[in-house]
Specification:
Number of domains: 2
CATH superfamily of the largest domain: NAD(P)-binding Rossmann-like Domain
Radius of gyration: 22 Å
CATH class of the largest domain: Alpha Beta
Shape: globular
Strand content: 15-25%
Order of helices and strands: EHEHEHEEHEHEEEHEHEHEHEEEHEEHEE
CATH topology of the largest domain: Rossmann fold
Distance between the termini: 24 Å
Structural class: alpha/beta
Length: about 375
């Protein structure tokens, strides 16, 4: 497998491209044969000419690209698999835990599916981890977006007319996105507080100059993949109660709390929102998986009667597509390089490899991932 097709994902809200020209050139040097759908890189600053100069072939349609490819790379899953040939390897983001019918469809069609979200969070797979690379950019943009929408300044200023106090920013969830939001808000001059259910991240928060809010939720921790463990209903109640006071004096609240493969926990309730300052901004980065904030909407901003604005911050990395594409492309390049067979000069499906075993969902007409064995009806 060495014929790679890069799809044009730029439709609707998507702005990124799965592989950029410098990485295309490097992969061609490894023996891959690459084609690109026309216009795929425009929103990321790359023309068809840039891809041609890198050695790629430009095709005009998905159908033409599908006929060429035995490996398809894209940002998101397609609306339809029509035209994808039996035996093709499809690599993209894929919400596998909520797309079981689609997984079955891929298996029946003989399509090999790699879900990039399932790449393990291990040292050897770090360079392939799209969740970390994209979440970092989303966290950055969340802080910048909040600063642009807040009706006051982030930094403290000493002026002849008096002193302007810094904005107070509260970050809930200190994963990759949360850490970058903290760092960016601090660089913009805000006073930052943060909370996470994992006590181990306290030192990271403090190292960025923010204050860690301590809430006793009993026994907590993280999974072997580095995700926060799911809270019980009682623990969520305790967290909401303790966070209410912090939210009430905050100018900005950014929530990043996601539980991989499950609905996001509700952390900011209507009662908490009602006690917040007029003009306060809330960005719910988990809105696409159910939302951390009661009443958040993935499709529009919500202005409450008390002057608080809730912004649904789903896939904020799309607002910085040049860098988001560069990082996503680096993840894809690392994956294609790692699984390249030097002798055959092509990609090799090796399920004995820890990374491949974790992210390969379907192969040879079957669902091969153990987590989805319950839908093995092909």
């Amino acid at each position: 497998m060495n014929k790679v097709f890069i799809c044009n994902d730029v439709a609707g809200l998507e702005t990124r491209v799965a592989l950029i020209p410098p990485d295309v050139k490097a992969l061609i040097g490894l023996g891959y044969d690459i084609s690109v759908q026309s216009g795929a890189g425009l929103m990321s600053g790359f023309t068809d000419g840039d891809y041609s100069s890198a050695g790629a072939k430009i095709v005009q349609s998905l159908e033409e690209g599908y006929q060429f490819a035995d490996i398809i790379v894209r940002i998101n899953k397609p609306d339809s698999i029509a035209g994808i040939r039996d035996g093709t390897l499809h690599i993209s983001s894929f919400d596998v835990f909520n797309e079981k019918d689609t997984i079955l469809e891929y298996a029946k069609a003989g399509i090999k599916l790699i879900s990039l979200e399932m790449v393990p969070r291990s040292t050897i797979a770090q360079s392939m981890d799209i969740q970390s690379s994209q979440a970092s950019l989303a966290g950055y943009y969340a802080a910048v977006l909040a600063a642009s929408r807040l009706p006051k300044l982030f930094p403290m200023m000493m002026t002849p007319s008096g002193t302007i106090s810094p904005a107070r920013v509260f970050i809930i969830g200190v994963g990759v996105a949360g850490l970058q939001a903290i760092a960016t808000a601090k660089r913009l001059g805000a006073r930052v507080e943060a909370f996470d259910t994992r006590p181990a991240v306290e030192e990271q928060v403090k190292s960025l100059g923010a204050k860690f809010i301590k809430i006793d939720l009993g026994e907590m921790g993280q999974t072997d993949q580095g995700y926060a463990k799911e809270l019980t209903a009682e623990q969520i109640g305790l967290q909401q109660q303790a966070q209410a006071k912090v939210c009430s004096h905050s100018d900005v609240v950014i929530t990043t709390a996601k539980v991989f493969g499950r609905k996001a926990p509700l952390l900011v309730t209507k009662d908490m929102l009602a006690k917040m300052k007029p003009g306060a901004i809330i960005i719910d980065m988990a809105v696409g998986t159910g939302g951390n904030v009661e009443g958040s909407d993935p499709d529009k901003d919500v202005l409450l009667s008390n002057g608080v604005t809730i912004i649904g911050g789903d896939h904020l990395e799309r607002f910085v597509p040049v860098d988001a594409s560069k990082m996503f492309s680096g993840n894809i390049k690392a994956l294609l390089t790692h699984f390249r067979d030097d002798t055959a000069k092509a990609l090799k499906i090796d399920t004995s490899d820890e990374i491949m075993g974790s992210c390969l969902i379907t192969s040879d007409g079957k669902i091969v991932h153990e987590k989805f064995a319950d839908i093995q009806e092909v």
